[in-house]
Design brief:
Number of strands: 0
Radius of gyration: 52 Å
Subcellular location: Cell projection, Cilium
Order of helices and strands: HHHHHHHHHHHHHHHHHH
Family: Belongs to the IFT81 family.
Distance between the termini: 86 Å
Pfam family, one: IFT81_CH
Protein name: IFT81 calponin homology domain-containing protein
InterPro entries: IFT81, IFT81_CH, IFT81_N_sf
Strand content: under 5%
Structural class: mainly alpha
Helix content: over 70%
Length: about 675
């Protein structure tokens, strides 16, 4: 316990508490002061706990502290009875209760700060099920759960980044390396500009290259747009096919069905649903309510230890034995009529159980069938999205397999041809490398000759011009093709757009009206929001200022109050000592013998004299005992010997009496 108090005092004297306690002053604190210290430690962990407990009811203080300790997962020692004593001790500020809590909190302050911070965002608010029936409440609750999950992932990522080992030095090194690369690139660009400036008509060539780049980007954009339109058309065709198939299946089902079979099926479904609604679901609901009530009761009770569980198990066993005895007594008392009724009751209960089991099996089979149908529909949709065809069945699947076999033989032949081509490709690749090396050597020689002649870069610019002209001719050909395709596609799309416009005309009219209303409402909302934000910001700033002022004044008030109490106590102690000293002086100086006797000095001298007399008497008694110890021991030994002698005489007398009585007989 002393080590625990020492640890608490050392930590309270450090940052951020700075209490300046020692072991004596801390141990002499009152219960309210101990509770205030515990509240200060909890406020350091969770800033929401900054409260002056003198201005708060003890019940609210205990409830607030217990809830925070529960969030921090503090486990008090002992069982359920100790839990009640723990609550009472926390209310009254008992030292055996508060010291372990302070020791536990100060040992792991950083860990508990993190836990309290996470608890603000991860403790889920339980919304009753009747409120969740409302769509807005359900959507808000769903959004709340999604935000909670997003917070979890972000917090994990943040922790991983903190522990990943990224340092500012590495980032600075990367930035410096990137800046060096940037400088090198700028230098290379300047060098290339200088080389190009020596060539004739370099501005015209740069302009042509820029136009080529713009045309390439435009070509890529048009190709991308064309691909998007193709995909949209493909998805529209797939949707049309799906709708047509659904229509065919529904017509087929309606053609094959008869009114009698439909009525019979509907009657069976009605019977099953009525049984589920009237019998099965109410029982399940009642059982769930009982279970919920039992769980709420268990949660409301304090935590149980091993001894409590053993006691409960023994109580359960006793109750079970009593139930079995009562059942045996009832069976012994039952009359024959009741026995027959019990048989019928048993049969009825067995039938009801079988009925419930079959209903559950039917429900499970329906759910399984629905899930399988959903899976089948998902798989068919996936296959349609992959290749836009239906799933094959029966003879079509056999034909498809035979086609696959024929294609596999063709594939094997083609695979052999590809292997031969790969071998040839390897040879050609090697020859290409050799030719490239030769080309590089020739280019190097050509550059040296051009430098000697003073026309460096001539061959390079000639090649670039030839390549640009070839690319331009290819682009012109591609433009001609793409423009024809695009004109056809545009005609088709215009026809489709006109059809869709005619179909969407009434919807667009309604949408315009709704958009106008939406714009008006959004304007009002923005105005109100701006007013609210400005008002809230002003109030928040005023509130923060007032809170700071109040906090400072409270701290000053507490300091002054503690200083006042300390000085008051010191004054009272000094007054008492002064009063005692004046009384003693009066009694010692006065001529009255009775007052002198009342003096503390006279009383102490009297007590000393009495104790000295008592010590003298005890020493004399000790001396007398020492002198008479030897004779007394001899006398005691003589008495023991005398007692043995008399006992021996008694035995001899009894033996003699018994012998004389035998002779007379």
């Amino acid at each position: 316990m002393s080590d625990q108090i020492k640890f608490i005092v050392d930590n309270l004297n450090k940052e951020p508490f700075r209490k300046n306690y020692n072991l004596i002053t801390f141990d002499s604190l009152e219960p309210m002061q101990l509770l205030q210290i515990l509240n200060d430690v909890l406020a350091e962990i969770d800033p929401k706990q900054v409260v002056d407990i003198r201005e708060e009811m003890p019940e609210h203080t205990a409830k607030r502290m217990l809830s925070l300790l529960g969030i921090l997962k503090y486990k008090p020692p002992g069982n359920a009875t100790d839990m009640s004593t723990f609550r009472q001790g926390l209310v009254i500020g008992s030292k055996p209760v508060i010291y372990p809590v302070l020791h536990w909190l100060l040992q792991r302050t950083n860990e508990l700060k993190k836990r309290a911070y996470l608890a603000r965002f991860l403790i889920k608010l339980e919304v009753p099920s009747e409120f969740l029936q409302d769509e807005t409440v359900a959507d808000t609750n769903k959004q709340y759960e999604e935000l909670m999950e997003a917070f979890k992932t972000l917090h994990k990522e943040c922790e991983q980044l903190k522990t990943s080992g990224f340092s500012t030095a590495e980032i600075r090194r990367d930035i410096s390396a990137m800046e060096d690369e940037k400088d090198q690139l700028i230098k290379r660009v300047e060098r290339l500009k200088k080389r190009v400036e020596t060539v004739q008509n370099h501005q015209r060539m740069l302009k042509i290259a820029r136009q080529l780049r713009v045309e390439k980007e435009r070509e890529e954009f048009l190709a991308q747009q064309k691909q998007e339109q193709k995909n949209q058309l493909f998805h529209a065709v797939q949707r049309l096919q799906r709708v047509q198939n659904q229509l065919k299946s529904m017509r087929h089902a309606a053609a094959d069905a008869k009114p009698e079979s439909l009525m019979k099926r509907l009657e069976e479904e009605i019977k099953f649903n009525s049984y589920m609604v009237t019998e099965k679901f109410p029982k399940e609901l009642e059982s769930k309510k009982k279970e919920l009530h039992f769980l709420q009761k268990v949660v409301s009770e304090p935590a149980m230890g091993h001894s409590d569980l053993l006691e409960l198990e023994s109580n359960i066993n006793e109750i079970n034995t009593q139930i079995n005895q009562l059942i045996e007594k009832k069976m012994m008392r039952n009359e024959p009529i009741e026995g027959k009724l019990s048989l019928y009751r048993q049969q009825a209960s067995i039938i009801s159980r079988k009925k419930e089991a079959k209903a559950e099996e039917l429900q499970e089979a329906k759910e399984k069938l629905a899930s399988l149908e959903r899976e089948v529909s998902v798989k068919t949709n996936q296959t349609r999205e992959f290749d836009g065809t239906e799933v094959l069945k029966g003879d079509e699947f056999k034909r498809y397999v035979s086609k696959l076999r024929s294609k596999s033989t063709v594939f094997k032949k083609k695979h052999q041809i590809i292997a031969e081509f790969k071998a040839e490709f390897g040879l050609l690749q090697r020859t290409e490398e050799l030719l490239k090396q030769r080309h590089e050597n020739i280019q190097h020689q050509l550059r040296t000759i051009e430098e000697k002649k003073g026309i460096s870069g001539y061959s390079y610019t000639q090649e670039e011009l030839e390549r640009v002209s070839a690319l331009k001719s290819e682009v012109d050909e591609m433009k001609g093709r793409t423009l024809d395709d695009m004109s056809e596609m545009v005609k088709k799309l215009n026809s489709l757009v006109s059809e869709k416009k005619s179909a969407l005309a009434p919807v667009i009219k309604e949408l315009r009206q709704l958009r106008q209303k939406c714009q008006e409402l959004t304007q009002e909302c923005d105005e109100k929001k701006s007013q609210y934000d400005s008002c809230a910001a002003g109030l928040e700033s005023n509130r923060s200022k007032l809170e700071q002022e109040v906090r400072g004044l409270r701290e000053e008030c507490l300091q002054e109050e503690s200083r006042y109490h300390y000085t008051n106590c010191m004054i009272k102690n000094l007054e008492v000592q002064l009063r005692r000293a004046t009384d003693e002086m009066k009694a010692y100086v006065s001529s009255d013998q009775q007052e002198k006797r009342k003096a503390i000095r006279q009383q102490y001298t009297k007590n000393i004299a009495e104790q000295e007399n008592l010590g003298k008497k005890l020493r004399e008694k000790q001396k007398a005992v020492r002198e008479s110890h030897g004779p007394n021991m001899k006398q005691a030994k003589m008495w023991r010997d005398f007692e043995q002698l008399m006992e021996c005489k008694k035995q001899c007398f009894l033996k003699q009496q018994s012998q004389t009585s035998i002779g007379q007989d």
